[in-house]
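Translate structure to sequence.
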């Protein structure tokens, strides 16, 4: 581990805005937030989807609230993936590189971890995220592309979620173990570690190795470390009921990659008997555990009996996701709406209908311009736009809307609508890629009568246009597999009405006919329920009762925006997890396996 000096010139960046040294952050940060991905800006390809976007909004709210936090992630030089489609609609992936030196500065401190019996050196880059109030937080991006490293190790931090299981394990070693050591090398005095999903669980294991119990306090088959001390420092947020989202590694591989790191029998007591389950490891070594919505916490508790899994429902950063035209309107009624979003609760009474509709039409116009530029399709500003932008994978059911083409055509003939979709499938998710190809086939089959566009290479810029410019936000996951979902929250901030399956956050937010509409998915075929709601409720309201539609837009802004925001989320973490928490684990040894939901 290196404790290289930090000089005044350490923070100079090549871009237009100099980034300061790490020094000003050292006296502030007491809480470290670890996430495999984080969405800071569209040009920095350090995110793939909702988990990273949430982490970015967490950082923005932390800056606004002046929480004493530092964020740790991977540099991901080659990004997640650049997406394009061939003539048949097949997803074609390629690397999506970006230039770190344009946005961040490399720091001088470096640490080494032993991976496959080789020293792997890790250097942090500093990105300063600053709120509109002038409050900064540090984001450290970990990089192994260093001349000191062997060629096979320089690319460990290249591809976000790339490679095979060995590559993924190496990335999680860098994030959890090297990330912990980087903070210490830089001089941070961290008391609380927040693991955003199980990718960072090895940081808790590295902490555990530092606290052995006296030999006379344990017997064979028991934990030989002070688990309580680690739990007092660790917080874990689990994000998915989908079993594939819980990383598992073979113990033989773990022992080979981290040879001699820790007695594997000790790890088995914490991470499962058969393979190393990163979620179980994090559960057993955390003093506070939460799901990301009330229903998700219930689902996670059923999956992992014996653990006290609380619920902190996700939120989104209000000023970041609100369209500038609406933001100006909000500002006329409150100067505090962006940083004290609770005031939005009164906006259903304050916002003039005409001003809300004019602002929405401006946002919709910008969406139409973007679609024309990117997809060469001209949308009709008078027809409602249904927006759907999700990770393209089976449980999200992006094809549910296309289950009955005859009925889609029939509805459209009497009440025309348009559809804009976006989303990427992981390169190893063949069913997700098949869905993308199938949707393109259906788009061609429905053309030219129904305008449907699938935008390639979904990113933060497309997301901001889409969540503001759509009229209806569609979400159709298979319950109970939607942990939370945040895209609908962003849409609601802009007066876009949600039409969604009752799962995740929408269970808490849906007031039928007020904040949006529910798609009932427990009594009959979900596609039938979706078509019925679209045909008999949503489209008639849009075309024949504009006053009521605008009234619902204002209800959505006030009732959803005032609660489902990252400021409320971070205040809850601060009060319940960072400051005061009780043990989350009732079962330690022989931790229960994942139970399929």
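Result:
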């Amino acid at each position: 581990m290196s404790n290289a000096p930090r000089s005044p010139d350490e923070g100079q960046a090549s871009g237009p805005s100099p980034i300061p040294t790490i020094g000003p952050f050292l006296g502030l940060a007491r809480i470290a937030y670890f996430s495999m991905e984080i969405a800071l800006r569209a040009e920095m390809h350090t995110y793939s989807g909702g988990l990273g976007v949430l982490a970015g909004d967490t950082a923005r709210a932390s800056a606004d609230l002046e929480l004493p936090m530092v964020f740790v992630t991977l540099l991901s030089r080659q990004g997640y993936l650049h997406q394009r489609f061939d003539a048949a609609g097949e997803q074609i992936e390629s690397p999506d590189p970006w230039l770190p030196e344009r946005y961040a500065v490399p720091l001088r401190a470096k640490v080494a971890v032993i991976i496959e019996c080789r020293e792997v050196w890790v250097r942090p880059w500093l990105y300063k995220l600053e709120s509109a109030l002038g409050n900064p937080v540090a984001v450290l991006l970990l990089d192994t592309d260093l001349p000191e490293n062997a060629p096979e190790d320089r690319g460990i931090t290249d591809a976000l979620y790339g490679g095979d299981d060995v590559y993924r394990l190496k990335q999680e070693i860098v994030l959890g173990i090297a990330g912990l050591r980087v903070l210490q090398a830089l001089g941070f005095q961290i008391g609380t570690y927040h693991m955003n999903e199980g990718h960072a669980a090895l940081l808790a294991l590295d902490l555990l190795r530092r606290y052995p119990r006296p030999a006379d306090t344990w017997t064979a088959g028991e934990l030989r470390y002070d688990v309580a001390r680690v739990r007092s420092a660790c917080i874990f947020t689990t994000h998915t009921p989908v079993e594939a989202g819980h990383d598992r590694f073979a113990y033989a591989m773990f022992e080979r990659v981290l040879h001699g790191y820790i007695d594997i029998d000790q790890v088995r007591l914490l991470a499962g008997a058969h393979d190393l389950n990163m979620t179980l490891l994090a559960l057993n070594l955390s003093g506070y555990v939460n799901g990301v919505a009330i229903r998700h916490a219930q689902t996670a508790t059923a999956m992992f009996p014996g653990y006290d899994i609380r619920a902190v429902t996700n939120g989104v950063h209000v000023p970041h996701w609100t369209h500038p035209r609406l933001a100006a309107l909000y500002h006329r009624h409150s100067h505090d709406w962006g940083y004290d979003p609770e005031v939005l609760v009164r906006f259903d009474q304050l916002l003039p209908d005409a001003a809300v509709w004019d602002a929405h039409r401006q946002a919709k116009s910008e969406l139409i311009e973007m679609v024309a530029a990117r997809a060469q399709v001209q949308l009709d500003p008078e027809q409602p736009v249904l927006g759907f932008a999700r990770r393209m994978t089976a449980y999200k059911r992006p094809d549910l809307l296309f289950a009955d083409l005859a009925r889609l055509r029939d509805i459209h003939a009497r009440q025309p609508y348009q559809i804009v979709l976006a989303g990427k499938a992981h390169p190893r998710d063949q069913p997700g890629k098949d869905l993308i190809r199938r949707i393109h086939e259906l788009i061609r089959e429905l053309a030219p009568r129904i305008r449907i566009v699938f935008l390639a290479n979904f990113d933060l810029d497309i997301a901001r246009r889409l969540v503001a410019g759509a009229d209806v936000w569609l979400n159709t996951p298979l319950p109970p597999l939607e942990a939370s979902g945040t895209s609908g929250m962003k849409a609601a901030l802009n007066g876009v009405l949600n039409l969604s399956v009752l799962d995740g956050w929408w269970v808490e937010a849906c007031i039928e006919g007020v904040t949006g509409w529910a798609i009932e998915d427990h009594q009959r075929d979900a596609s039938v329920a979706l078509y019925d709601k679209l045909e008999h409720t949503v489209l008639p309201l849009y075309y024949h009762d504009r006053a009521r539609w605008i009234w619902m837009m204002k209800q959505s802004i006030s009732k959803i925006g005032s609660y489902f925001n990252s400021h409320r989320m971070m205040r809850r973490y601060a009060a319940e997890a960072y400051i005061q928490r009780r043990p989350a684990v009732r079962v330690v040894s022989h931790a229960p396996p994942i139970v399929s939901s």
